[in-house]
Amino acid sequence: MLATTSRRLCSLHPFGQSQRLLSSWASVDPSALTGSNPGQAYNLVNGEWGLPAESKTIPDPLNGEPFIKLPDTQLDEIDPFVQSLRAVPKSGLHNPLKNSERYNMYGAVIAKAAEEMRKPQVEDYFTKLVQRVAPKHDAQARAEVVVTRRFLENFSGDQVRFTARSFGVAGDHAGQMSTGMRWPYGPVGLITPFNFPLEIPALQLIGAVIMGNKPLVHVDHRVSIVAEAFLRMLHHVGMPTTDADYVHGHGSVVNEILVRARPRSTLFTGSQRVAEKLCADLHGKVFLEDAGFDWKVLGPDVSDPDYIAWVCDQDAYACSGQKCSAQSILFQHSNWVKAGLEEKLAQRAALRKLDDLSIGPVLTWTTDAMLAHVDKLLKIPGARVAFGGKPLEGHSIPDVYGAIQPTAVFVPLEQILKEENFALVTTEVFGPVQVLTEYSDEQLQLVLEALEKLEAHLTAAVVSNDPVFTQKVLANTVNGTTYAGIRARTTGAPQNHWFGPAGDPRAAGIGTPEAIRLVWSCHREIITDVGPIPEGFQATTS
Ligand code: NAD
Predict the structure, then answer these.
(1) Per-residue model confidence as pLDDT tens digits over 463-476
(2) Which terminus of the chain has fewer Cβ atoms in its 10 Å neighbourhood, N or C?
């Protein structure tokens, strides 16, 4: 057993009776979290839940009251995490030739986890817990829970070993055969952001462990209590507690754990700044799901403007614009402008309200920072506020977070393309702010030029049922998750298709068997050559 500075607390259920009634694994009651009754989060290392010496509180995003106490792990306390990862062999906890029964074990664990999440009270529990820490509309929070449950359904039973399936090719002679195997990395890092507190860590964690890795998991401190609850639920349904470690706290501390533990691979989801730092610190051994500056092009064929306005509004402003897939820039063909789309967008945006969290707190951009960005955009010649651009009123969202109206700034296309404006216009605001622009038939090439100059290649949408138009845009762009057709959107990220960026050899994916194989395993070729030795063999030297 590793030395640990943590106190052992694994058997305690320190939260109220109501949660014990819900299920024995639930560690916090989302409806009981208040300033006078804060929830407590725990670290997990080598199978033991515990606390470091220091803790910190995080403010309730709706009123600023301290409502969750988090382990504030310090650098002199990280040794158990480092040692735990270092103890994992490169060949993993299982692989196609070792501990194969664990594929079956995970098939059963994941089936039971899906069953647990299908209980209405468990779906409600996770929905409310997500909403408490990352306020979003019930439909958005619930979708995250349902996608997670459907992913578990997809990867239960034999699908675990099917995902790790090998392939064989006949050799040159009897007894020879080559087999391509999916091999684990062994010790791995898994870091995820605040905006999908359940879905991203849950899907990546499952991918990591089923392929035979042991991950050190870290989720943004503002929401990390949610993935802790998911991990506790997995333990409840049979996942070995030593199969993953979990550390709350500062990113810089996690950075140091990874540098010292030297995981064989790390999946990072978050900002481009941290992605590049980790890439340097971990010598390139990373897979990345980083920033999203996501575009939508509305083609020349106008139809169903009310529907299109609704999709655009959902893409830009659901979760208060805090989706990596959020629509950041809308290229409208002039036909759409003539059809009055901008007014329809404004009407839809005006329906959003704090009461139902269809607009709400922004966790990483303050109100001042977002308004300052809007002001800078407005200095561009011809730029104007299409709608929004003001702080939300009548709320108690603390100043450390942001609160502004759904906002759109129109910037002329030729100005966007200017060297001095391009970086500003294409800065990802992780909040409810988008850029609108207009193009004519003759300017399609300029749109393609703008798309070529973008750095982020996550999601995109080509809204048109004109196949020649759609093909032209698709053929000249690279985004990893691109929707095409009149119903195209930029957001969604369900469990039934690959989600991730493209155009970067470090690009990761999430959701599908291919994504799991890419991110959480490497290729190993084993060539068996067992004979017989050919009759009449005569040695020659060449
Ligand atoms: P962030 O990079 O600040 O934080 C992400 C995670 O990294 C957090 O868990 C944080 O604690 C951790 N972290 C911070 N510094 C670290 C370090 N030095 N070493 C290790 N870990 C560290 O991200 P954010 O700004 O809070 O999140 C929003 C960003 O995430 C946006 O750019 C968004 O587009 C992106 N995102 C991308 C995807 C995707 O699939 N591509 C999904 C969600 C969010």
Answers:
(1) 999 999 999 999 99
(2) C
